[in-house]
């Protein structure tokens, strides 16, 4: 029987890095919905925000996320804003796949994110923007997550180990 895990959290939580580590340790595949969007469109997420705008991106993101969840086989990392859409929330709340919210503080996220131009929602006053994003997103992340793992002070390998312990293991 295959075990799948969904990772959610804000920019800088380590969803991609931890997801890859977790997939390696479980000997399964890793998929990032942002990578799917970039592959489908041929553009980076930040370029999509600039050229098409956030509403267009979010609409595409919902389609990609719903399909990825339906086909999940391994570790799936959702873009930071993906759980904000009601269709995604409804689907996440109705599935048995473990959903792990990687909880991170601003102090830990800041150096990881670098608050650079590749994070379109964090361009103006990045620290304040990240904090505002988290105030809005935290209740949603917590409501759809089946597990919460604090990542501050832990290596990706340590976080992956915690997730394996929490969700019971191996594929």
TrEMBL record:
Matching Gene3D superfamilies: P-loop containing nucleotide triphosphate hydrolases
Annotated keywords: Amino-acid biosynthesis, Aromatic amino acid biosynthesis, ATP-binding, Kinase, Nucleotide-binding, Transferase
GO BP terms: amino acid biosynthetic process; aromatic amino acid family biosynthetic process
CDD domains linked to this entry: SK
Alphabetized InterPro entries for the sequence: P-loop_NTPase, Shikimate/glucono_kinase, Shikimate_kinase/TSH1
GO molecular-function term, one example from the UniProt record: ATP binding
Cellular component aspect of the GO annotation: cytosol
SUPFAM superfamilies per record: P-loop containing nucleoside triphosphate hydrolases
Residue intervals passing through the bilayer: none
KW Nucleotide-binding (keyword) present: yes
Stored PANTHER family: SHIKIMATE KINASE, SHIKIMATE KINASE 1, CHLOROPLASTIC
Record-given protein name: Unannotated protein
Species for this entry: freshwater metagenome
Organism taxonomic ancestry: unclassified sequences, metagenomes, ecological metagenomes
């Amino acid at each position: 029987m295959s075990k799948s895990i969904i990772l959610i959290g804000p920019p800088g939580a380590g969803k991609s890095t931890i997801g890859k580590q977790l997939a390696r340790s479980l000997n399964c595949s890793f998929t990032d919905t942002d990578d799917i969007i970039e592959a489908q469109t041929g553009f980076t997420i930040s370029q999509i925000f600039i050229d098409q705008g956030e509403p267009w991106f979010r609409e595409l993101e919902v389609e990609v996320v719903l399909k990825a969840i339906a086909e999940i086989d391994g570790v799936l990392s959702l873009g930071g804003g993906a759980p904000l859409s009601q269709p995604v929330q409804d689907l996440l709340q109705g599935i048995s796949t473990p959903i792990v919210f990687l909880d991170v503080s601003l102090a830990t996220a800041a150096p990881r994110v670098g608050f650079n131009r590749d994070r379109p929602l964090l361009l103006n006053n990045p620290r304040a923007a990240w904090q505002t994003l988290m105030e809005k997103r935290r209740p949603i992340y917590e409501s759809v997550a089946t597990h919460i793992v604090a990542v501050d002070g832990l290596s990706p390998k340590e976080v992956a180990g915690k997730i394996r312990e929490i969700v019971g293991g191996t594929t």
